[in-house]
Specification:
The chain is mainly alpha-helical and about 425 residues long. Helix content is about 45%, strand content about 5%. A hairpin with a 7-residue loop joins strand 7 and strand 8.
């Protein structure tokens, strides 16, 4: 069956005029693999006038089956005159728009698009807080508060439990038999001599600076100042380490003098246990401390057994350990002694040296607390003013020992502040060479 297409309007044509100089903008092809549309050319000049022709649509031949449309470019042809044999006319097509030459005018509004949910503005993430070890500062504060409350609760429960325990008849008899101290041997000296007070001050002075410099050595990554001995140019060490070792040497000298005087004057009987009764008396003193019903011994005459054991451990165990491990880690130790190094490796010395320092810190803290908690004026008079009596209340109102203690703390604080390269370098130059690298 044949089909007759209705007449269609011919494509608008542009009158033959001079072509412009603006090239046509070409886009995507109309068919796959085709040429870009429209064909290459130039836009007509602005004065070109469109020409309209009306032609009759030719009758197409009969189609056997529909074929897919194929787009093909329609070139612009020369204008032809209308045929007189056309039988049907159609309205002319609208005039073709003139493509202006030159750049496009900007849009009168800002071009926007919907950004989508993923393009929304998010706030900047907070910086990661600084950690000190495993926790941040706030976490350490919280852990300190929680831990302190936990320890306070545990201490309260321990006090109540021990007080109930000591109220039992069997424990009452134990406290009567072992009051917390035992009698010293015959001939034991009474009182504390003046040299012991000076030794005590020097020991505290040096120990505080040794702890400060030792912690500085552990935390110092890139030393700014170095010290080199004159006899060994290869033995360069940091100025902080030199200061630490110099303090260690002075501390050892002070300790040797203390031990010699301790045995010469008989004061060793106050700090070295002379009876096995020291152990049950120490247990009794510990129970009395926990129950807050503290021992009432007179330190001018005798120490309780806990004090005696603590002094013995500090003088004859902790101090030698600190000295032996310190020497092993210092430059004094022979590096080429292979057998000796294998028997006593430096790793053992490092593993012991720092815990011994922590022991000294704990001992000083507990010692100072008990001095102030069991009669500050009386105890400070014993140690700093060498004043005391068999009557425990004889010097309970004397402030001389207290002010001497304050003066010693001022000296120690001044030394703590002055322990820096600006002050230490001139002293170190007296024994070697000081350099910045």
């Amino acid at each position: 069956m044949s089909q007759h297409a209705a007449p269609v309007a011919a494509a608008p044509r542009v009158a033959a005029t001079e072509s412009g100089t603006t090239p046509l903008r070409r886009g995507l092809p109309r068919v796959t693999g085709g040429e870009p549309w429209p064909p290459a050319g130039f836009a007509p000049a602005p004065t070109a006038t469109p020409v309209q022709d009306v032609v009759a649509a030719p009758e197409p031949p009969p189609l056997a089956s529909p074929a897919p449309p194929v787009a093909s470019p329609i070139p612009v042809t020369e204008p032809v005159e209308a045929s007189s044999s056309t039988t049907e006319l159609v309205p002319s097509a609208p005039a073709a728009a003139v493509v202006p030459s030159g750049p496009r005018a900007p849009l009168p509004f800002r071009q926007t698009v919907f950004p989508g949910a993923a393009a929304r503005t998010r706030p900047e993430p907070r910086p990661e807080p600084t950690r000190y070890g495993p926790f941040t500062r706030a976490q350490w504060a919280g852990a300190t508060v929680v831990g302190g409350l936990g320890l306070l609760f545990a201490a309260g429960m321990a006090v109540l439990a021990v007080r109930w325990f000591l109220s039992l008849p069997a424990l009452q008899d134990f406290l009567t038999t072992y009051p917390g101290e035992y009698h010293l041997p015959e001939g034991a000296p009474v009182g504390l001599p003046g040299w012991l007070g000076w030794q005590h001050f020097f020991n505290v002075f040096l120990m505080v600076l040794i702890i400060r410099s030792g912690l500085r050595v552990r935390s110092e990554k890139r030393p700014a100042v170095f010290w080199t001995p004159r006899t060994n140019p290869k033995g360069k060490i940091s100025l902080t380490l030199w200061f630490h070792q110099a303090l260690d040497l002075l501390w050892l000298v002070n300790g040797v003098v203390f031990i010699v005087l301790l045995f010469v004057t008989g004061q060793w009987m106050r700090v070295i246990p002379t009876s096995w009764e020291v152990f049950p008396n120490a247990l009794s003193a510990v129970l009395q401390y926990i129950s807050l019903d503290w021992p009432t011994e007179n330190g001018w005459v005798n120490y309780n057994s806990v004090q005696q054991l603590a002094y013995f451990a500090t003088i004859f165990l902790a101090a030698p350990l600190a000295a032996i491990t310190g020497v092993r880690m210092s430059g004094v130790w022979p590096k080429n002694a292979k057998t000796l190094n294998r028997i006593y490796p430096v790793e053992w010395a490092r593993a012991v040296h720092f815990p011994v320092m922590l022991y000294f810190v704990a001992f000083i803290a507990v010692h100072v607390f008990l001095v102030f908690a069991t009669g500050a004026l009386r105890n400070l008079n014993h140690m700093y003013a060498a004043q005391g009596s068999t009557d425990p209340n004889a010097y309970a109102d004397n402030w001389l020992g207290f002010w001497l203690f304050v003066a010693s703390m001022i000296v120690i604080a001044a030394a703590w502040v002055a322990a820096r390269p600006l002050v230490l370098a001139p002293i170190a130059r007296l024994f070697g060479t000081v350099s910045s690298r």
